[in-house]
């Protein structure tokens, strides 16, 4: 069976109550990206950055996976071939729905020591004076990939993209690289490509097929087609 690689973005979690980073009036609209999502911003004001991600962490804990998350977990479980889910999201809704996921941009549930690279489960609230449990240094930060940093799992993702049969992009804007280039990587090796989105992304023209609508509706419908 063809390997399916699925890339998910903020659009798949929006119906669970988690807005995209730039949603008007949302949590992220309260701050400049440079202040809360860059290494420079963290160095300048770690208290602000920790408070920002504490709010996001608690917000994510209060919502539930939706029908789109559940459908992808079902696909991963029942498809006779490989289904690899790569997400740009930092929430854990895929996992809570029962799926195994590669997190390109880290996860709100993770903590990272900037001094020794030790990782552990993040508590609900983090602060600048938190001590790393491994090296006892006050250098803890959210295990999030900020702007200007290298996304996680890139070698693993590249391996999967080298023999993908169908690449599917769900709920992504199509303007954040390197993920925005995955569709072109898939096309170069002759894989089929499909976009499922609320509206066409900036890279919609690169896909063989595009379907628009609410993720909670179009993703389960597509999964049913695949599993027939």
Automatic annotation (TrEMBL):
InterPro entries: DHS-like_NAD/FAD-binding_dom, NAD-dep_sirtuin_deacylases, Sirtuin, Sirtuin_cat_small_dom_sf, Sirtuin_class_III, Ssirtuin_cat_dom
Annotated SUPFAM superfamilies: DHS-like NAD/FAD-binding domain
Protein name: NAD-dependent protein deacylase
Entry's EC annotation: 2.3.1.286
Domain Deacetylase sirtuin-type: 1-228
Keywords associated with the record: Cytoplasm, Metal-binding, NAD, Transferase, Zinc
Protein function: NAD-dependent lysine deacetylase and desuccinylase that specifically removes acetyl and succinyl groups on target proteins. Modulates the activities of several proteins which are inactive in their acylated form.
Binding site for Zn(2+): 113, 116, 132, 135
Binding site for substrate: 53, 56
UniProt similarity note: Belongs to the sirtuin family. Class III subfamily.
Active site: residue positions: 105 (proton acceptor)
Main location: cytoplasm
Transmembrane segments: none
Alphabetical list of Pfam families matching this protein: SIR2
Domain notes: 2 residues (Tyr-53 and Arg-56) present in a large hydrophobic pocket are probably involved in substrate specificity. They are important for desuccinylation activity, but dispensable for deacetylation activity.
Nucleotidyltransferase is among the record's keywords: no
Binding site for NAD(+): 88-91, 171-173, 197-199, 215
PANTHER family: NAD-DEPENDENT PROTEIN DEACYLASE (PTHR11085:SF4), NAD-DEPENDENT PROTEIN DEACYLASE SIRTUIN-5, MITOCHONDRIAL-RELATED (PTHR11085)
Compartments where located: Cytoplasm
Cofactor dependence: Zn(2+)
């Amino acid at each position: 069976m063809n390997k399916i690689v699925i890339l998910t973005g903020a659009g798949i979690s929006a119906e669970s109550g988690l807005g995209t980073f730039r949603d008007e009036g949302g949590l992220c609209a309260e701050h400049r990206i440079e202040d809360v999502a860059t290494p420079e911003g963290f160095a300048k004001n770690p208290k602000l950055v920790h408070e920002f991600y504490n709010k996001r962490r608690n917000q994510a804990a209060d919502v539930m996976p939706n029908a789109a998350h559940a459908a992808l977990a079902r696909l991963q479980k029942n498809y006779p071939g490989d289904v690899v889910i790569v997400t740009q999201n930092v929430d854990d809704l895929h996992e809570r729905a029962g799926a195994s996921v590669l997190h390109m941009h880290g996860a709100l549930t993770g903590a990272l020591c900037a001094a020794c690279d030790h990782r552990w489960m993040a508590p609900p609230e983090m602060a600048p004076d938190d001590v790393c449990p491994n090296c006892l240094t006050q250098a803890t930060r959210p295990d999030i990939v900020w702007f200007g940093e290298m996304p996680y799992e890139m070698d693993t993702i590249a391996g999967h993209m080298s023999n993908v049969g169908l690449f599917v992009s769900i709920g992504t804007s199509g303007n954040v690289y390197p993920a925005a280039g995955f569709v072109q990587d898939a096309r170069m090796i002759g894989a089929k490509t499909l976009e499922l989105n609320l509206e066409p992304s900036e890279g919609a023209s690169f896909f063989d097929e595009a379907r628009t609508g609410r993720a909670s509706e179009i993703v389960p419908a597509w999964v049913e087609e695949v599993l027939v």
